Amino acid sequence: MSQGFLLEVAANSVASAVAAQEGGAGRVELCTALELGGLTPSMALIAMVRERLHIPLYVLIRARAGDFLYNDLECELMRRDIETCAALACDGVVLGVLDAEGAIDKARCRMLIEAAGEMGVTFHRAFDMTRDPEQALEDIIELGCERVLTSGAQASAPEGAPLIRKLVTQSTGRITVMPGAGVSAQNIAALAKATGAHEFHASAKQLLPSGMRHQRPALHDMEGGEWRSDVRQVRELTDQLHRL
């Protein structure tokens, strides 16, 4: 893409990851349970996606839904997931741990980052839950992360654009600040101009209807189709970045 712009797609399946690549994404963040904000995918899913992608593959490391205050068992689980990613030749991992006061838990993050070894590390949207985003950014830089994913502490990146702009300026080339949440083909160009960011994160997903002809209305929570990244939406996003 022109001027170093890059689109990362949050993919929740093999099909989504392949669609992201076909649509022109520069990187995939693999996860499951997008409806919960994303969780760590299975070893088999990671392996199957790794076999099919020639673009960089980063894997979300998140032990459970909810907050980002993790106990020792959860941190051990995430460390082992990171080791699995390294063994499967992933390019990077996406992680984040906070303390109870809303600061970066540098000790636990450092342990996970050390497990990543030569893989790249993105700090995920746990950042948006921090009490002091400017200090949190400095802590993440100190830890050696290569980028931070953020909505600017708002529900969507367009809403958080003023803070994202401040973070881009504060980082002064020391880390990549990547807007994510609510990023679409309709707003990505304006978001790039408003923030000064060069990497963007989107799921570019659509709901596919269920192919089931037999259903039980009383069990509606187990009905429904599949959310999947859409080649057309990914291509529209990348086309917008190409025009910048």
Please, could you describe this protein's structure?
36% of the residues lie in helices and 17% in strands. It is an alpha/beta fold and 244 residues long. It has a single domain, classed as TIM Barrel, CATH 3.20.20. It has an 8-stranded parallel beta sheet. The model has no long low-confidence stretch (mean pLDDT 95). InterPro entries: CutC-like, CutC-like_dom_sf.
Summary?
With 244 residues, the protein is an alpha/beta fold.
How many distinct folded domains? 1
Please tally the helical runs, counting DSSP H or I stretches of 4 or more residues: 8
User: Might you state the CATH topology name?
Assistant: TIM Barrel
The CATH architecture would be Alpha-Beta Barrel
Multimerization state:
single chain
The percent range for strand residues is 15-25%
Radius of gyration: 18 Å
Following the backbone from N to C, one meets helices and strands in this order, namely EHEHEHEHEHEHEHEEEH
| N/C terminus separation | 9 Å
Give the helix level as a range of percent: 25-40%
The biggest beta sheet, please?
A: 8 strands, parallel
Name the overall outline.
globular
Give the strand order, joined by hyphens, for the main sheet.
Answer: 7-6-5-4-3-2-1-8
The structural class is: alpha/beta
